[in-house]
Automatic annotation (TrEMBL):
InterPro entries: VIT, VWF_A, vWFA_dom_sf. Residues 1-131 form the VIT domain. It comes from Oncorhynchus mykiss. Residues 283-464 form the VWFA domain. PROSITE patterns: VIT (PS51468), VWFA (PS50234). This is von Willebrand factor A domain-containing protein 5A-like.
């Protein structure tokens, strides 16, 4: 057998892609990303290279060019079928051609075809896109550069199309045979505090004393084992801003590119008294991916928890944090789906206990990832009166029918809000962000060392906030100027989250150069009004970024409209093509085509085709199962930790019944349940890694209270007698236990407050309902017992 020299795929075929260099230019909360791919044909025959790769779902691809030798060819945007035919014709005539097209199934997957590269020839391919940076819970701005493309599960009976991920050639993430370099230039009106990443970075380099400009680079040696994430932190990030971008000089006035375009960033501030009140109503539906890929580790580091275990712990937190009086259900899905209850049930101690028992037994055992059917089932169920439906979707996002799912969610958007969570590297940004956007919710991504729990609790906080209704936007501009919105109407606003608006400004005012926009809405039956003024004078040299983002926003809205009409509405597809060609921004119906016209002769025989491998975390079921088995063995069994603590001198001594109760409260949330139930057997040699916070949470009642019991004493690292003795006289044992739990949380777990804030609020409400006269005495006694100094006011009592 002859082994090919140079870079080869897993099939021992030479790899023509040699390197990828990425340059990022960030201006405020918008980024322009330029990628240059270097190809080289080291074979003896002309070849065609196919590269399928991910891009952010909201990105607007706006430039594509190729360079062979000293000759550069800038691609044109054309109707997709016409571009494909031109590409084939060029190859047939011996010319070199380059084709870039969006997948038919998902807007975050692209296919690049590099055709008829002669032996020994080198080619450089450049791709530019612009994208908005998303706002994170800690006020950071997130830019994600997808480096990993995991297999997208295609449901049975669906058409895989021509541009989808069925054509993906993949290798394990650490074995990608080409390199990646990345440098970023960051510019902001506000000082740049810091830049963080899930990948090693070279030190941040400030370019001026005001710290409003800086550069940063990815450290050498990136292994393609994760998406590259940059988190940018500015001082005073959440300031409403307006950017008016000048028209393209060569474009016809009255067209999108021939008129100025304004981009508004709004940060609504809600009244504090309204934000302090949380709703006690709602139907909470937790839809959890139980496909086989959820067995995989959250990340590739040592000791990583698997995705399904993290989901179980998150469900524990969510169930404990729900308000009394609401309704809930949990639906697991894979190739099929299963509901915990036939229909949503009222939240009570009984239903919570039933659900928690089922959560403990929940495994990633339902096959492939089919989201469509469980969503159809949910939408077929009537909504409950006075219980707004809130959908929480947890998935690793590896589906192939993204557009079909988004269309279904949009059709039913009026009946619910959807909060989505993309778990692990390579989750589809188009799916996770898309369902949240269509259903007036919020999207979160859990990657690298991220914990799912705090992000889920942030979304729960949004879900429990009073809903913003009756949103209206009014533009106030001189009468000579007309405004054409490019963004769909605002349908959702959250405290601390940005709302973006794009609009085309036609006409010119001879006098007044000021404009403003007024956003009105109703919050908890209170009218609220926010206004932002801006100058109509365009800013200089913005590189048409705002125009392209506005065009992409309008194109995506029209694409959804075209699919809803199933192609039946005249002119929508043609309008998308016209807008795409005019703005130079990609769409589902167009493609970039570049032809390098030489003196080539017609090809003789078969053109060699090489699929450039894409990095994939789990490239085969065997590798996936090996990774997951390693991840499952790493956590310590919780029952064993109880035994070790119980058998040590001076530690808690429990009855058999109490031991069993403690085990039942702990077992199943992310740990193997095959541990011996005999607590008097020899102690394990390794220390447990169980977080006592989850132990405490698992013991809380649905009402918000805790019971004075041995399992609680175990969490507090006390004996049952040590916990009971300091209880003030005339104070109920349950009140005392609940105060102790609160003091412990505020005294030892403040760094995780976002995870337990709602169950603490429930506990405080429950204590207040008991009308306890000696709360101060309880808090003081609790501080003395636990060695804390927590004030009663801090607890909210």
């Amino acid at each position: 057998m002859v082994t090919c020299c140079g870079l080869v795929t897993v099939k021992n075929e030479p790899v023509p892609l040699k390197s990828i260099a990425v340059e990022v230019s960030v201006q405020g909360h918008v980024a322009t990303v330029s990628s240059t791919l270097q190809y080289e044909n080291q074979e003896q025959s002309p070849l065609e290279a196919i590269f399928v790769f991910p891009l952010p779902g909201e990105a607007a691809v706006c430039r594509f060019s190729t360079k062979i030798g000293q000759t550069e060819v800038v691609a044109e945007v054309q109707e997709k079928q016409k571009a494909q035919e031109q590409y084939d014709d060029a190859l047939s005539s011996g010319q070199q051609a380059f084709l870039l097209e969006e997948s038919d199934e998902s807007p975050d997957v692209f296919k690049l075809s590099v055709g008829s590269l002669p032996p020994g020839e080198k080619a450089s391919v450049s791709l530019d896109y612009v994208t908005e940076l998303s706002v994170q819970a800690d006020d950071g701005l997130r830019l994600c550069l997808p480096a990993v493309l995991n297999p997208r599960y295609q449901p049975q009976g669906s058409d895989s199309g021509s541009g989808g991920s069925a054509q993906v050639s993949s290798v394990p993430a650490g074995s990608v045979p080409y390199s990646l370099s990345l440098s970023a230039h960051v510019s902001s009106p506000h000082p740049i505090s810091r830049v963080e990443s899930n990948c090693p970075l070279d030190p941040l380099n400030y370019l001026n004393t005001e710290k409003t400009q800086a550069t940063v680079s990815l450290a050498a040696g990136h292994q393609f084992d994760r998406d590259v994430e940059l988190l940018l932190y500015y001082q005073d990030t959440h300031q409403p801003t307006a950017i008016v971008e000048a028209a393209q000089a060569s474009a016809k006035p009255g067209t999108l590119m021939g008129d100025p375009v304004v981009m508004l960033s709004l940060y609504p501030e809600f009244p504090k008294d309204v934000m302090s009140s949380m709703t006690s109503h709602g139907e909470f539906l937790f839809v959890v991916d139980r496909s086989g890929s959820m067995e995989c580790p959250m990340h590739l580091g040592s000791g990583s928890q698997d995705r399904i275990s993290s989901a179980r712990e998150t469900l524990l937190l969510l169930l404990k944090s729900l308000p009394m009086g609401c309704y809930f259900n949990i639906i697991g899905f894979g190739s099929s789906y299963e509901s915990f209850f036939p229909k949503s049930v009222e939240y009570s101690q009984k239903t919570m206990d039933e659900a928690l028992q089922k959560v403990k037994e929940m495994r990633a055992d339902l096959g492939g990832t089919e989201i469509l059917q469980p969503l159809k089932h949910i939408y077929s169920q009537p909504c409950l009166p006075d219980q707004p439906r809130q959908l929480f979707l947890f998935t690793d996002g590896e589906v192939g029918n993204t557009k079909e799912v988004l269309d279904l969610v949009k059709t039913n958007a009026g009946s619910h809000r959807c909060f989505s969570f993309g778990i692990g590297e390579g989750a589809s940004t188009a799916l996770i962000s898309g369902v949240a956007k269509q259903a007036r919710g919020h999207a979160q991504f859990i990657t690298g060392q991220d914990r799912m729990q705090p992000k889920a609790m942030q979304s729960l906080r949004f879900a429990l906030q009073p809903a913003v209704v009756d949103i209206s936007v009014k533009w106030n501009v001189p009468k000579e100027v007309s405004v054409t919105p490019l963004s769909p109407p605002i349908r959702v606003l959250f405290q601390g989250q940005r709302a973006l608006l794009y609009a085309q400004l036609t006409g010119e005012s001879s006098g007044d150069t000021e404009g403003s926009v007024t956003v009105k809405y109703s919050l908890a039956k209170q009218p609220v009004e926010n206004q932002l003024s801006f100058s109509l004078k365009p800013t200089e040299d913005t590189g048409m970024t705002v125009h392209r983002l506005g065009a992409r926003t309008l194109i995506q809205s029209l694409e959804v409209e075209e699919r809803e009409q199933d192609g039946g509405k005249e002119g929508v597809k043609e309008k998308v093509i016209e807008l795409s060609v005019q703005s130079g921004v990609s769409s589902a119906f167009t493609a970039f085509i570049a032809i390098h016209k030489g003196d080539g002769e017609a090809l003789q025989g078969q053109l060699l085709r090489r699929h450039v491998p894409t990095p994939m975390l789990y490239h085969s079921s065997m590798l996936m199962m090996q990774s997951c088995a390693m991840a499952r063995r790493s956590p310590m069994v919780m029952a064993c930790s109880l035994q070790m603590n119980m058998s040590a001198p001076g530690k808690l001594k429990l009855s058999k019944k109490s031991k069993r109760k403690a085990l039942d409260a702990l077992q199943g949330f992310g740990y193997d349940d095959n541990c011996s139930e005999d607590f008097d057997s020899p102690a394990p040699t390794s220390k447990p890694v169980r977080d006592p916070l989850l132990q405490l949470i698992s013991l809380q009642k649905a009402s918000g209270s805790w019971v004075l019991e041995a399992a609680l004493a175990e969490v507090l690292v006390k004996t049952e007698e040590e916990v009971s003795k300091p209880k003030p006289a005339q104070v109920d044992q349950e009140v005392w236990a609940t105060v102790l739990a609160l003091v412990w949380l505020y005294g030892f777990k403040m760094e995780a407050q976002e995870e337990w804030q709602f169950l603490a609020m429930k506990a405080v409400s429950w204590i207040q309902a008991q009308k306890v006269a000696s709360v101060s005495e309880c808090v003081q006694a609790g501080n003395t017992l636990l060695g804390c100094q927590v004030q009663k006011d801090t607890l909210g009592l």
